[in-house]
Amino acid sequence: MANNDLRKRIKEVAVEHFNKDGYYGTTIRNIANEVNCSLPMIYYYYKSKKELFDDIIKKEFFDIIKKQTSKLKMDNVIDFYTRFIYDLNNLSDYDKKVYRLGIKVYLSFDGDEELMNLMDEWEKTIMPRHYQLLEPYLKNTDNKTAVVRTLVHLLETMIENIVVKNRYLPENEIREEIAIVLKDCE
Amino acid sequence: MANNDLRKRIKEVAVEHFNKDGYYGTTIRNIANEVNCSLPMIYYYYKSKKELFDDIIKKEFFDIIKKQTSKLKMDNVIDFYTRFIYDLNNLSDYDKKVYRLGIKVYLSFDGDEELMNLMDEWEKTIMPRHYQLLEPYLKNTDNKTAVVRTLVHLLETMIENIVVKNRYLPENEIREEIAIVLKDCE
DNA sequence: CTTCTTATTTAACGTTCGTTAGTATTGTAA
DNA sequence: TTACAATACTAACGAACGTTAAATAAGAAG
Fold it and tell me: Band of the pLDDT at A186, cuts 50, 70, 90?
């Protein structure tokens, strides 16, 4: 009954601790304490500390990313990207922390080489995906790749503001910035 | 004689380790090993592990930041910001790592609350400084603050690419992106 | 009620951590 | 060469770490 409840709760608390203190700063004991279970219970559900960390990144983080990128329906370009970013404000606390932890690994501030490689592969898909999305709307632009690159860079900072720095970004500010880069798409 | 040499060398190695493994993942023993000195020598020059970390951020990092912001001479806006970012490519390895560590603290991926507060204060000065710099050149723009905000956001990602992800950003790519945001300043 | 699996605990293992006491070596000034 | 401060080391402290063995408690199945 409580079977998967405890497993889930452990992961939730782990996300919090890995976020706050990093991989090495997080201890199994602290997690067990906050979960209110005994220390070996963590090992009952997860083979090791590393597996717990990897599970969060490989499953939880990439789930969020996939969920996010699957919402790719385009009408107005600026509207779309504004919503794409704005929606991040409404992620659950848990999802936001998982996302944050993922970015931490993405910047190789935590995690190991294996996870870094996963991130590298994922990163390679970003630019082409947005280029493909934007290409039809950039008819009058001479340097399409530059615009796409600039937009993606801008999106990255805004994601970081919401997810990593945990700030609320109002919709109009998001729209303003995106509109400046996509000026020719209005 | 070797007085300050060893002190300096310890800090250099510490920067490397704090970067790679974070505060908790870094051990005084590992630092001492790489420096090729005995373990208590670290304590001869630095009161504690925390003081060593704080010293790097408070002195080294903010030195780099101050050096960077002091170079504020403006002729052509786009030229200026292009150079501002491009020059980061040529930072020494040591400076780059210190910068990277600073960003890690800035994103509160490492360090404690005290350092975070320092970063917050510093961050507050960024936007006004660039606004003041850019204001004379934005005569024809209706929403000046949005342009400045977008530019600063864009700069942040490019800095992160060079310093955190350790990538080389070619001058023309930097210029392209900045020019898109500062289109009306050419 | 018994049997067997699943869930949970107590207690401890070996290791490594940050830190320090105590001692030796070196350099310098008299 | 002697005296003294600065620089360096060996050895160890107690605490905390990841992990596991062994035992117990709870639930389901017969």
Answer: low
